[in-house]
Amino acid sequence: MMRRIAVVPGSFDPVTLGHLDVIDRAAGLFDELHVLVVHNPDKSALLPISQRVSLLEQAITEAGLPTNIVVASWSMGLLVDYCMDVGASVLVKGIRSQVDVAYETPMAIVNRNLAAVETVFLLPDPANAHVSSSLVRQVAGLGGDVSPYVPRAVAQYLERSRV
Ligand code: PNS
């Protein structure tokens, strides 16, 4: 039988509890789930990609998420090229609000047109609806406590790297 393989792409700069919730839900729906750190040229990054991968791995282990999750990064071109490489036909995105729907819809249609890769939208726990990486970057940068919004490994890393 064909293995159902999906990809959760994102900047993960840094991974939040909202991301982890979506990753956990998606891992239950597919045989194999790739969590893919992708550089987004529209955003100025806080963390290097290798650090984002490391924090994702630590957070997934810490949270005891399923073992069918692979963390990787991609900087070689289109997201759908990665999907083709690993045999994934589905992308998974979390949708917190209508703003996310508006942001994600054009990308979903382009990815489908490029390579017949479908996008599945999951609704995260509403408790995390206000959580975003950009908010975490801002609060952490100004010296605030981000521990309610991020996995412990991320909170500790941000605390340690504070200057
Ligand atoms: O977490 P983000 O920043 O909202 O994630 C956006 C991301 C990285 C998934 C998006 O920018 C992306 O898919 N980039 C890969 C480049 C690509 O394939 N672009 C064309 C289709 S949208």
From TrEMBL:
CDD domains: PPAT. It is an enzyme of class 2 (transferase). The record marks 19 as: Transition state stabilizer. It catalyses: (R)-4'-phosphopantetheine + ATP + H(+) = 3'-dephospho-CoA + diphosphate. It is found in: Cytoplasm. Substrate binds at residues 11, 43, 79, 93. Keywords: ATP-binding, Coenzyme A biosynthesis, Cytoplasm, Magnesium, Nucleotide-binding, Nucleotidyltransferase, Transferase. ATP binds at residues 11-12, 19, 94-96, 104, 128-134. The keyword Acetylation does not apply. Pathway: Cofactor biosynthesis; coenzyme A biosynthesis; CoA from (R)-pantothenate: step 4/5. Belongs to the bacterial CoaD family. This is Phosphopantetheine adenylyltransferase. The keyword Nucleus does not apply. GO terms for cellular component: cytoplasm. One of its GO terms (biological process) is coenzyme A biosynthetic process. Its cofactor is Mg(2+). Residues 8-138 form the Cytidyltransferase-like domain. GO terms for molecular function: ATP binding; pantetheine-phosphate adenylyltransferase activity. The gene is coaD. Reversibly transfers an adenylyl group from ATP to 4'-phosphopantetheine, yielding dephospho-CoA (dPCoA) and pyrophosphate. It comes from Cryobacterium serini. Homohexamer. NCBIfam families: coaD_prev_kdtB, cyt_tran_rel. Its EC number is 2.7.7.3.
